[in-house]
Amino acid sequence: xxxxxxxxxxxxxxxxxxxxxxxxxxxxxxxxxxxxxxxxxxxxxxxxxxxxxxxxxxxxxxxxxxxxxxxxxxxxxxxxxxxxxxxxxxxxxxxxxxxxxxxxxxxxxxxxxx
Length: 114
What we know:
- Strands 2, 4, 5, 6, 9, 10 and 11 form a seven-stranded mixed beta sheet that branches. This protein has a four-stranded antiparallel beta sheet with strand order 1-3-8-7, with no helix packed on it.
- It has strands spanning 2-6, 9-12, 17-24, 32-38, 45-51, 56-58, 66-71, 76-81, 90-98, 101-104, 108-113.
- By secondary structure, the protein is mainly β.
- Helices cover 0% and strands 57% of the residues.
């Protein structure tokens, strides 16, 4: 499975950004697609994930601000990020979990200025 992410960039606090990720190499809907992030000096953390059955999971820090969505037929996942805060500044990684194997895309930088 290969993951290609797009989006990210620089935005002011309170603004919005949308991240997209396309997974290739699987003929079937991948079990879990999602996003992690890693801020400078911090460990990588889960942001949001969605299963092919429709279940979603969010980090407490982004609940109510971020929305994850996926297209099972296309194996794509998107993360709509609203009301961004400087604390959301990080490198965001698209990831997939399928048959207990994890796959990671290259990170995309999100910078939120105050």
